[in-house]
Structure formats: structure tokens, C-alpha cells
Amino acid sequence: MVKFGLCIFLMESLEAKNRIDALTKEIERHNRSYYVENSPTISDYEFDLLLKELASLEKLYPQYALENSPTKHVGSDLETDSSPFKQEKHLHPMLSLANTYNIQELREFDARVKKSVSTAFTYNCELKFDGSGINLLYRDGKLVRALTRGDGEKGDDVTRNIKTIKSIPLSLKGSGYPAEFEIRGEVYMPFEAFDRLNYDKILNEEQPFANPRNAAAGSLKMLSSSQVAERGLQCVLYHLIASEDYKTPLHSLSLKEASSWGLPISEYSKQCNDIEEVISYIESWDERRKSLPFPTDGMVVKVDQYAIQKLLGFTSKTPRWAVAYKFKPEEALSKVLSIDYQVGRSGAVTPVANLEPVQLSGTVVKRATLHNADQMEILDIRIGDYVYVEKGGEIIPKITRVELSKREPASEKVVFPTLCPACSTPLVRDPQQAKFFCPNSEGCPPQIEGKFLHFASRKAMNINVGEVAIHQLCEREFIKKLEDLYTLNDLQLLSLDKWKGKSVENFRTSLEESKKVPFGRVLYALGIKHIGEVSAKTLAAEYKTVDALSKATVEQLIQTQDVGEALAQSIVEYFKEPANIKTVEALRSFGLQFEEKEVEKVSDTLSGMTIMITGNYSISRDLMKQYIVSHGGKVGSSVSANTTYLLAGSKAGAAKLQKAEKLGIPVISEEEFYRIANPNGETFKGESNDAKENDEYTLF
Ligand code: IVH
Fold first, then answer.
1. CATH superfamily of 2-64
2. Does residue 95's CB lie within 6 angstroms of at least one atom of ligand 1?
3. Positions of CATH 1.10.287.610 in the chain
4. Nearest CA to ligand 1 atom 12
5. Where in the chain is the domain with CATH 3.40.50.10190?
6. Which residue in 151, 157, 639, 690 is a FRET match for 588, CA 20 to 30 A apart?
7. What is the Å distance from ligand 1's center to 188 Cα?
8. Share of the chain above pLDDT 90, in %
9. Spatial contact of 272 and 278, defined as CB atoms under 8 Å apart
10. Which residues, listed in sequence order, are joined to residue 390 by a DSSP beta bridge?
């Protein structure tokens, strides 16, 4: 009997150990997808449930809790292998918040606080912005550096990128600020900027961001600050930490002061006398938050008095004086009316459900993606089913599950088409992806239209023509090949819906401008399979002319940085096709750039200087070299006494940095360099970012 009892105990305890180990591993994996890869695979809610389960098991079986358990440390956003960012220590650890999804637990939090303190206190209740944590350091009123949260102890130095956010002052105004202080906050992406970014990504057949939080975190870690500047990031600050000399008694007051120094502070907060007031304030936001133009995921409740915060202190992971009340992810229930199969530029077929219109997070949702045939199979989706829709990626809502209790018994399984819905060509499955493709790239209308749209897109030729116009031009057979865009006559253009003299003029001006677009972007615009913006620029810099590129073999091409086997194959195949050669020739005859330009002299600002380059910049290293030469400078071959500056980009070589330091050579950032090269203040941009007037965003 005793033996049997012991056996159960051992089994249970072994099970607990196994579960703790498995949960720990799983949570660490999710932490990485969330904080480092910015591409979570489960919702915050599901993640919090896993963490909660682990915390309760660790409480019951402390002997199995791992020393470095995710319940004890914050998820790290540090790029582990050879981070391109310098890592720096926070002056004070940067912690996370305990969170809850229910009001009862808020009351329990209040009871715990009351148990620990005998004096009266109040709460400050704030909106919880859903972005990426940031820690700014100000010294003598000047922004010194900006770090991501990192692992809580040290963060990645993203100062250059943070400086592109206009609302963050480089110098404080007013007076009374501490000589040195850290102020933490959130960098976030408003929905509008997020939609714009993902629209561009979808158009270029890149993976869109799952949500604005990931987009903000991903943008902060981009190497090119000029690209960060285009992302429309915003910042709000909510936690000031200064030395003992800072005498302001309330957290809420410190935020008001920070605002008077010009720092961006949220207008959505309230001082509450007790937890009931907190709860009504939270409830007042339940609906209201849905119409905010930026993402939020809850409310943060903080004890307002610094003295009491100090008394309560911290656990290893969170302060005991604050808690986050998280809103449940919004979902809506709607009926599947039909399923469309959309064909993209590369021929990939994506199933999209048409839904009975339903309100979700401030917009009406009529369509939701089903990703691919496998996902349809997993969901076992049927026409007429009621399904739950969530805005994972805001502009592309996704179907998360089927409400089986509402299923019509007679409903039938949906069969993925075997023929292309646009041109009836038999579909083929790409063995490397879960996608089906239409192989008829030359004759399939959406693929052809997609190629024109890509060619005209902002990062390619930046031509003023939108989706609807391209559709009509193709349908009327005014354009069949890319080069046809350059021979359209006024009559054809004026026949397009809503096109008047002004649109024709804009279109023609942008066509003229496109003739100045550098070779790298032209190469990208051609839409060669697998080519991206970066690989196109690298290839242009390496091969210099389209003629040289067209003669390269796969073996030669894969030697190029950023070029893999698939792209190399596809380049060779592209230039084997006579129709493509004809397109290139025709575009060249219209004046498009198919050669890397000789460096033109722009100024003499760098005359007499020898600049050594190291690391990566917002433009390619080749462009940087050209830039130096075009401003009268020389590019050095090694750091020596003759070097004027060492221009250090991200991933700068340690040896070069050390040598420069030893020789007393000034090390400058890309931004400082542009200031030296452009003393009159015009900022340099790698490429034009003019918005198109005729953008017609109708994908979703
Ligand atoms: S206070 C030690 N206030 O939510 C205090 N955090 O889930 C730490 N967040 O790490 C933070 N809005 O990145 C605070 N008003 C707010 C916030 C906020 C968003 C983020 C922050 C934090 C995370 C915890």
C-alpha cells in the first residue's frame, strides 16, 4: 500500500519535472520568436497561460524549478550571435510587469500592497502601449543613448534609430531636470503606418509583420536609420528613474515634469484614489480603446508614491508596486460566405475567406486569410461555418478557429482547386513551401498585373500608377510587357477611371523620373524571381552592367554576397528567355539605367580627406565609397596615420576600431559623416521616398 502510494507520488513528481522542463523550453522558444525574431507563433494570451502554468508548477515543486527559469527573468531581445548593435548596461535593470486578465486579481494585487504598507497611497492608471520597450538616457539635458530592453541588464544600442523619431527631443527644454536620468517608454507603430508598411511588403511579396508590435520592434533593430525614418514610429515615455537627489514625490508628477521638458508623455492616464476607481477607469477603456489609432494591450496600474514603491521593491522580474491588466485579444464571430483563391505576382495561390461583414478593432472586416491549403485542412473550414476572426496582422485578419456548435450538418469539406482560378492552368505544389503555384507566369492576368505593380512600386521605379489603373490597362491590353508603360498615349490614359489631365501629368513626370532610378533598383523592378532590394543593389554594384550580369554563371553568381543558389538559378533563367532580353533592351532604349553610374562630382566637402570605412551602412558599402568620392574624398585601404576618419557602421570591425583608437583617429557614425559631407544641412537619403498619389490600396 505504502509502496503504491509512494509510486504515485514519484510518478506525479516525475511528470511535474517533465512538464516543468518542457514548459521552460517551450516558453524560451516563444520568447525568442517574440523578442528576437519579432514573429510570434502564439498569441500573448496563450503565452501568458503557459507562463502561469509554469509559475504554479514551480511553486508546487520548487526543487524542479530551473535556475534560469523564464518566470524569473524577462524575455531577451538581444541578438545572440554577433549582434550588429553595441550592447550597453542599463543604469538600473529594466524589468517587466506582472500581468493579469481578470479584475479579481487586481483586487488581490491591491490587498497585497495594503498588507505591506500602512500609510495611505494612490494609484496612477495608464494605457499600456503595445510596442517595444526603450530606455533613454539624458545627461545635462542631452539625449546620450537609447537602449532596447535586451535581457533587462543590458540592451542593444539603437540611438541612431531612435533619433529618427521626431517626438524624442535631442535636447530638453525648460529647467529642473535631473543632471542624469533614464526614462523608459515604448516605441510603437500607429495602425496607419503599420498598414502602409505591410501593404508594401505584400506588394513586394515579402512576409508582412504579424502585428504592429513586431513591426515596431523589427524596425528599431534595422541597420539603416534612413529606412527606420520611413517607418512612422512613435514613442511614449512612462517611467523616469533618477538619483536620490530628484525629489518629486509622485510618479504621475514626474511624468508631468517630463512633459514640460519636451518629452512625449501619454495623455491617457488617471490618478485614482483606490482600486475601485482604477477598475472603473479600466472599464471605461474597454470599448474606447478600440478606436485608438495605435495598438494597446491593456492598462498599467502603478502605486503613485515613490516612497511606497521603494518600500514594496521588486522581484527578480517585476516591480511589486505595479501590475498590468491585459485586454483579451479582440475576436469577432462571423459567417464564411465563400472562399476566393488569390494569385500573387509569383503565382502563389492564397485562399481568402469572404465573411459576413463584422466589426473588429475599429474596422469592418469582410475578408480573412486562410494562408494555404494546409491551414485550411487544419481548420477543416466549410462554407457557411461560423468562424472566429482575429487581427493578428491588423490589415490581414486571420481565422483562428471554427465554432463547431454552429456548423450546418450538411456542410461539405472545401476542396483546394487543382486549376488556377484566374487562367485555369493546373496548379503545382512547391515542395519547399505549403503553397500551390500557377506556373503560367506569362499568361495569368493577376501575375502579369502583379509584375506591373511591383515594377511601379515605390522601392522599384516609383511610377504614379495604382492597382485599379494597372488592372484596367492590362484588361484593355494597353500593356502586356513592362516596356509598354513607356509608350502609353494620352487617349489610353484618359480612358482610365478617374484619370484626368493631372493624373496623366503625374504619371508622365514619374516616368521621366524613373529614368534616373539607379541600376540596382531597376534590376529589382524587373521582378526576377527571388531577387530582393538588397540583393539587387549588391548585384548592380558587383556586375556594374546588365550585360555583364546576363553573362554570369550560377557558380559565379553565388559568390556574390546576398545571392543564394535559388536566386542565382533564377537570374540565369531570366536572361535565357528571349522575351526578357527584349524587355531589357526596350527599357534601355527608353533611357532606364542598366549600368552603374560613374561617380559624378557633387561637392568638395571631403577634399583632402582619407576616409576608411568599416561595417554596414544604410546604403551599400559600394554606394558609400561612391558617395565619398563624389564629395571629393578618398577611400582608405587601411587605418593609418593618414586616415582622417574611420567611418564606423554597424558590425564595425573591432581591429579597425582599436587601431583608430590607438592612433587617435576620430571614429564617426554614418549620421556624423553625412553632416561633414553636407555641412549645409541637406540630409542624404539612399532613395526617394515620395508618396505616390495614385496609390489604390484595395487588397483587403
Ligand atoms: S511600466 C518597472 N507603463 O509593458 C516598470 N510599462 O508587459 C515597467 N508598457 O515592459 C514598465 N505601457 O514595455 C509601464 N504605461 C506603461 C506601459 C508599459 C506599455 C510595456 C513595457 C513593459 C511591458 C510589460
1. Helix hairpin bin (1.10.287.610)
2. yes
3. 2-64
4. 128
5. 599-700
6. 690
7. 12
8. 54
9. yes
10. 331, 398
Rounded (5°) CA angle 670-675-680: 155
Pseudo-torsion of CA 271, 277, 283, 285, nearest 10°?
A: -10
Would you say residue 353 has pLDDT above 60?
yes
Range 174-185 average pLDDT: 95
- Which residues belong to CATH 3.30.470.30 in the chain? 87-326
314 CA closest ligand 1 atom index = 2
Atom of ligand 1 nearest to the CA of 94: 2
Predicted local distance difference test score (pLDDT) of residue 483: 97
Dist. CA 552 → ligand 1 center (Å): 53
The third-level CATH classification (topology) of the domain covering 599-700 is Rossmann fold (3.40.50)
The fold adopted by the segment(s) 331-429 is OB fold (Dihydrolipoamide Acetyltransferase, E2P) (2.40.50)
Q: Which of 265, 300, 323 for a ligand 1 pocket mutation test, highest count of atoms within 8 Å of Cβ?
A: 300
* For residue 7, pLDDT beyond 70: no
| Ligand 1 contact via 97 beta carbon (within 6 Å) | yes
Residue 637 has pLDDT above 80, yes or no: no
- Report how far apart, in Å, the C-alpha atoms of 548 and of each of 374, 569, 575, 593 are: 42, 16, 11, 14
Q: Report pLDDT digits (tens) over 46-91.
A: 788 888 889 888 888 888 888 878 888 777 777 554 467 888 999 9
- Among protein residues, the one with the nearest Cα to ligand 1's atom 7 is 97
Looking at the chain, the domain(s) classified CATH 1.10.150.20 span: 445-589
Mean pLDDT of all residues belonging to the chain: 87
Give the distance (Å) from ligand 1 centre to CA of residue 78: 18
Fold of 87-326: D-amino Acid Aminotransferase; Chain A, domain 1 (3.30.470)
Atom nearest to 95 CA in ligand 1 = 2
Instruction: Cell numbers for 315, please give them.
Output: 522581484
Going from the Cα of 35 to the center of ligand 1, the distance in angstroms, rounded, reads: 15
Residue with cell 554563371: 553
Question: Annotated active-site positions, please?
Answer: 128
- How sure is the predictor about 572, in pLDDT bands with cuts at 50, 70 and 90? very high
CATH architecture of the domain with residue range 445-589: Orthogonal Bundle (1.10)
Check pocket membership of 450 for ligand 1, CB cut-off 6 A.
Answer: no
Nearest to 264 by CA among 272, 255, 275: 255
Ligand 1 centroid to Cα of residue 246, in Å, is 22
Tell how far the Cα of 62 is from the centroid of ligand 1, in angstroms. 28
Cβ of residue 300 lying under 6 Å from some atom of ligand 1: yes
Cα–Cα separations (whole angstroms), residue 633 to 518, 630, 670, 678: 22, 7, 15, 13
What's the pLDDT score for residue 521? 93
d(CA 447, CA 471): 11
Grid cell listed for 7: 509510486
pLDDT for the residue 679: 79
Task: Indicate if the pLDDT at residue 143 is higher than 80.
Answer: yes
> Nearest residue CA, atom 18 of ligand 1?
128
pLDDT score recorded for residue 279: 96
Q: Is the CB of 251 under 6 A from ligand 1?
A: no
